[in-house]
Design brief:
about 230 residues, alpha+beta, Peptide Methionine Sulfoxide Reductase, Chain A, five-stranded antiparallel sheet, 7 strands, about 35% helix, about 15% strand
Length: about 230
């Protein structure tokens, strides 16, 4: 993200990727999904800048909270300045808390692979490059791990994408560190910021078009959850 300091220059840089972001990929749901459980569950996903991933799930029905943060590194803490340098091993990620009675883990993954990011880009997404922008699923239990691996194999076998999926799934229960407050709800708070308009707003719009039954017009906000707690 490089702090998005020069907005005009960034808009020009992001423009070639805008057309790509505007087209969602139509993919089948997972052949196997998690059984419907009681209580809330979590999924941790990385797919480029966390602003866009967070915004997509904030508008997903059944999601109760979506927090931007860092996962997958070996260090015991993570901050934007260190993670953005690409040396800590962390990825920008989003922790999604969801009600499995309203949206299944499989549907969370289908949305992830359909509209949230491009799973065939290695260590980058659009204009952002580096291992911190990799595509990775951090399973929270063995069931999630099996479903994620099987789904990737299913999509590769169906040749849904022109290139192989490079999404990693091997890091189990990685420590998750919430990002700084100014990163939370960023796309909702700054819809006209050029980076958001070019790269992330199309993802949210594609969620609405591709998954109308799972569209939540009013986004769930981290700031609202903080007020309740």
């Amino acid at each position: 993200m490089m702090l998005r300091t020069a907005l005009l220059a960034l808009a020009i840089t992001a423009a070639p990727f805008a057309a790509q972001a505007e087209s969602a990929v139509t993919i089948p749901p997972p052949a196997a999904d998690a059984p419907q459980g009681d209580g809330l569950e979590t999924a941790v996903l990385a797919g480029g800048c966390f602003w866009g991933i967070q915004a997509v799930y904030q508008h997903t029905r059944g999601v109760k909270n979506a927090v931007s943060g860092y996962a997958g590194g070996a260090q015991k803490d993570a901050y934007y300045q260190t993670v953005s340098a690409g040396r800590t091993g962390h990825a920008e990620a989003v922790k999604v808390t969801f009600d499995p009675k309203q949206v299944s883990y499989g549907k969370i993954l289908q949305i992830f692979f359909s509209v949230a990011h491009d799973p065939t880009q290695l260590n980058r997404q659009g204009p952002d490059t580096g291992p911190q922008y990799r595509t990775e699923i951090f399973p929270q239990n063995e069931t999630q791990a099996k479903i994620a691996k099987a789904y990737i194999a299913q999509l590769d076998a169906a040749k849904v994408y022109k290139r192989p999926i490079v999404t990693k799934t091997d890091t189990m229960k990685a420590a998750f560190f919430p990002a700084e407050d100014y990163h939370q709800d960023y796309a909702i708070k700054h819809p006209y910021q050029p980076y958001i308009a070019f790269n992330d707003a199309p993802k949210v719009e594609n969620l609405k078009k591709t998954f109308p039954d799972f569209w939540n017009d009013k986004p769930v906000l981290v700031s609202d959850a903080a007020k309740v707690n």
